[in-house]
Known about the structure:
The complex is a heterodimer. Chain A is of the alpha/beta class. Helix content of chain A is 37%, strand content 27%. Chain A has a single domain (5-245), classed as Aldolase class I (TIM Barrel, Alpha-Beta Barrel). In chain A, strand 5 (77-80), helix 3 and strand 6 form a beta-alpha-beta unit. In chain A, helix 1 packs parallel to helix 2 and helix 8 (208-216) crosses helix 10. In chain B, strand 13 and strand 14 form a beta hairpin. Chain B contains 6 helices and 14 strands. Chain B is of the alpha/beta class. Chain B has an 8-stranded mixed β-sheet. A 4-stranded mixed β-sheet of chain B has the order 6-5-7-11, covered by helices on one side. In chain B, strands 8-10 form a two-stranded antiparallel sheet. Chain B has one domain: Rossmann fold (3-Layer(aba) Sandwich), CATH 3.40.50.880. Chain B is globular. Chains A and B meet through helix 2 of A and helix 1, strand 8, strand 10 and helix 6 of B.
Amino acid sequence: MLKKRIIPCLDVKNGRVVKGTNFVDIRDAGDPVDLAKHYDKAGADELVFLDITASHEKRDTMIEVVRQTARDVYIPFTVGGGIKSIDDMRAILRAGADKVSINTPAILNKELITKGAEIFGSQCIVVAIDAKAKGDGSYEAYINGGRVNTGIDVFSWAKEVEKLGAGEILLTSMDRDGTKDGYDLELTRQVSELVGIPVIASGGVGSLEHLYEGLVKGKASAALAASIFHYGTYSVAEAKRFLIDKGVKVRW
Amino acid sequence: MIGIIDYGRGNMSSVEAALKKSGYKFVNTDDIGILATCDGYILPGVGAFKDGMEDLAKRGLDAFLKEVAKTDKPVLGICLGMQLLFDYGEEHGGAKGLGLIKGQVKKLTTSFKIPHMGWNSLELKRESSLLSGIVSGDDFYFVHSFKVVPDDDSVVVATCEYGEEIVAVVECGKIFGAQFHPEKSSDKGLKIINNFGKLVERC
Lengths: 252, 203
């Protein structure tokens, strides 16, 4: 039986892992390669690196992080942030990443999804959607690290990225990110039910109950979390034991 | 020496990393002269069946692998690499495979989400030295939208369940295949890589 995945997310800036609260107020939480090795041993199912300042700074630092991680980590990992072209994708995948995640460039240049899927396979292409509630039950997709509202409806965009060839959706609630109030379950459930590709729930995890809710009520294939793991609030093993006790199938 | 067959099908670095970790000597190349000196082979790969076969053929690696199959040298196909070992793939209008194991490669028919992506548990159907130390219920990392359908059930070593039964590991003489990615399946995956290394050393 397929297991629900627990995915620690490492926000990386200048080669160091940080975690922002609502994308501001960033703290340093360690070396990405060491953290990645730690999470592999601790039982994480997958990892995501988000290079949060990639658009402004040199990419080489991240490529080196990817290369070192691929040497020592034997679980799949995704890299996002600053990937704007097929060449960027190739560089990251060649360095040893299993998947690339794209957000802003996917919206500005939809062909990047299709071309990337054709060249590298759909399973390599994750489309990240940063969603913010409008207040009427609908959501809009944001780009540029949450700074720009595209006005695009999240539900129709999710359907479209699937059609364009994405293999997975990384769905972040802008409203919940950094709040520790839990995933936006309504958003997560609706997108998960709408598309035939896996959805990773992201944004807002503050407790183990939140992971459970995202996977069961939100129907996500995977639950992404950062600070609860990085700051040692809970270990991956504690999270998994909690989920197993509640009847969720996870890798153990 | 293990030869990783490089036919331009993406990420070889994780297979290399897993072999390095297991302490086996390997070479990653499309050079048939160098490959001929190896004692066993890993055929990795992601992507489409037809493209995979074309990329092998372009380099003469399809004929090379067919010759290898006549010897005692072990071959391990991973993911697309496993699928290419079979006779025929129906993806994109269909294409002939290497034909080292009798059977077809077909689209998943499950109503579950496709690709089948994530950790799934094996059910062992028979003994295999490739899976030494692995038991039913152990999880491995899968990413695929197509499955192998062998003509002869006796080649099936392990399956997994995803709304349908999926063949996860095959063994036919010295030809092995894993639908999942052992190189991305943490400790238990490394165990399989290690088992394959031992098989090659014994040759």
